[in-house]
Amino acid sequence: MILEGFEVFDRPKNKVKTVREVIGCTVQTGRIRITTYTSKLLGNPEYVIVIINKDKRKFAIRKAAKGETKSLAITYSDNVGVRNSIRCASLVRAICDIAKCSVEKTAFICTGELIQNNPNMPAFIMFDLINVSPANRKKS
To answer: What angle is formed at CA 135 by the lines to CA 129 and CA 136, rounded to 5 degrees?
Structure first.
C-alpha cells in the first residue's frame, strides 16, 4: 500500500505562544498601530499623548489620563488583546511629513526605545522617523 507507515500529523498540545518583544509601530493610512509589547510597556493605556520633534525627526508617546489635554484614544484590538491603534489622520499626516514617506503608497515601520529617566515621571516610547522600513501589506 502506498501510504503504509504514514500517520496523521497531530500538532503539540499546550504549545507556548512566543511574542517578539519589539518596541515599534506601523504607520498606516489614518492610524498608527503600536506593537503589543509597546502597549504593555506603556501599561496598556486607554489614552496617550504624542509629542513630535520635527528637527530631530522623532516622535514619542506616553500614557495619558482620560480627559487630559490633547490626549488621543487607543482603540482595542480583539485579535491581539491589547489597545494598540491610535486613529488620527492629521497625526499620521504630520508623522509622514517628518518621515518623508507617504502612507497612501505604502505603510512604514518605526522602531522605538523606552525612555524613563525619572521614576516619578511617566515612561515615553521614542520613535525614530529617519530610518523607517516599508511594511508588508496584505493583498486584498
So the answer is: 175
